[in-house]
Request: fold
Amino acid sequence: MDNNRRNFIKIAGITALLGIGTGVPFSVSAYRPEEDKYLENKKSINGKRFGMVIDTRKFQTEEDFERVIKACHDAHNVPENLPDPKQEIKWIWKDEFKHVFPSKPNPYLAEKVKHREFLLLCNHCNNPPCVRVCPTKATFQREDGIVAMDYHRCIGCRYCMAGCPFGSRSFNFMDPAPYVDVEAQNPDYPTRMRGVVEKCNFCVERLQEGKQPACVEASNGAIMFGDLADPESEIRKVLKENYTIRRKEELGTNPSVFYIV
Amino acid sequence: MLEKALYGDKKYWTWIIFLLAVIGLGSIFYIMQLVQGLTVTGMSRDVSWGFYIAQFTYMVGVAASAVMLVMPFYFHDMKRFGNLVVLGEFMAIASVVVCLGFIIVDLGQPQRLMNIILHPTPNSILFWDMIVLNGYLLLNIVVGWTNLHAEHKRLPHPRWAKWVAYVSIPWAFSIHTVTAFLYQGLPGRHFWLSAIMAAKFLAGAFCSGPAILILFALIAKKLTNYDPGREAIKSLSKIVTYAMLATVFFFLLEVFTAFYSTIPGHTHTFVYLFKGLHGGNALVGWMWVMTVAAIGSLVILIPPRFRNNQELLVIGLILLILSTWIEKGLSFVLGGFIPSPLGTITEYVPTVPELMISVMIYATGLLILTVLWKIAISVKKETGNA
Reply:
């Protein structure tokens, strides 16, 4: 009796080990989005480190902002008017100088800058703390510098939200589907489920088709997008000619979004 | 040995059924959270971790505190802890289960939990926390159960178990260090970004954990006549006192750095917590209760005359638990999120479902603790060790 039980446990144990030993590596190797590359596509816009320059002088009216924000929200099915505003989803939004640049406090700031509003979005940091802390590689840095999300791998631990010093990440506290504008919905981009984190993705899906990011396209030239790693690129020319600032540079995350003030 | 949990008096079973009922009630709220999402909690975009993660943090400390018995007993051969050490190990088991429970209920997609193992990511501190917590759980189960089983069979503790106990000593330090690293390495969260955090966590653990253990052991003594030993309680309350002094000292170091440097990132959260900032003051009352309770506990614990008086000791320990809980189980996690990275104030108040789910997890921990202690005390009494 005792001997039988011992044998049973032995066989069961070996079987279980074999199962785990083969199953785990297989399932791991089968699915590695963090190593995904661009599908080679003649049209696609390629780069080594994508970045953005926002000319805040060109955002004058409410309409300038709304147009850009709506373009982004429509392209990515971002839910709006959630029942609890504290749990809202933000990809690109606006705020005043003291909130956008809290490490540059200045009580005598030039009037025009003090009352100006600034666009905020994910900085796609070159040294992203969100990627460092994610326990599942659900958020990862692509070879082109874009900090991307895999909504299907995210476990919703929200460590990345604690890690991000820019408040650029949002969590789907509830099912977002009922709050996505049905009329403007983009069937080519997935809607998210509740319980995962999301943020601006620099429009990777549009770059692949050779299109500029939605906000850039809608900005009438107020936002510029390009490859920071290419010294000949248009964006580098703009950076050379204009004084720009970045958010919380002192933290060393090396943001890729620049502001002309 | 497990069968000992099945024989108990009416009081025992009433307590077990009560805990099961609480767990059942709480699970209704958890199902609600699973269906509707974390929107049923008070958490928000700005305060993205709340009551759950704060309880997790506190209970990691309680789990780690078993080392304050394991080290003297196994390493320094302090025999007086003989009756208490297994209770400490079993309390560590229950505490780690509570910790894991709080992590799981905090997840937006709990069914994907295994992604942490399927896609191991060593650059994430959460990955290491998973390893050290589960390892610590296993170590305590192995040591506690093996040694108790040996006593049950009236055999000496196996030698190998002693070595496993040695491993569990640094391991206990590691669980709270790694838990502190979850917070203290994040750029832009100034309240957490301090090298003293791990040390403060450990000091807080080594007073709050043994304090809870002493209280529970005294309750067990009253209910079962199991005597943990007067000398053991005396020694342990001395450890509690020193650890509490260290905790308060470390806290004051933070306060000094913040207010002597007057760097806004360092002062803002303290101002928010103790005075209120930009109209936000949800935690002010709590923080002053914490302060008064901490002082009160030290007034009782420091003079040996008070500390060795059991009635006073109990009051001192309750005050200590209250103040350390407010510090680590409430203000520490929230303080990292308020003010937000944009300098705004979003207040946080846990909701009823959130609290009920937390009660469910604590009740689960108490159930495990009750069953394990029941077994341990039955064995100890049977072998005439009590």
The CA atoms of residues 130 and 160 of chain A lie 4 Å apart. The two ends of chain A are 82 Å apart (CA to CA). The first strand of chain A starts at residue 50 and ends at 55.
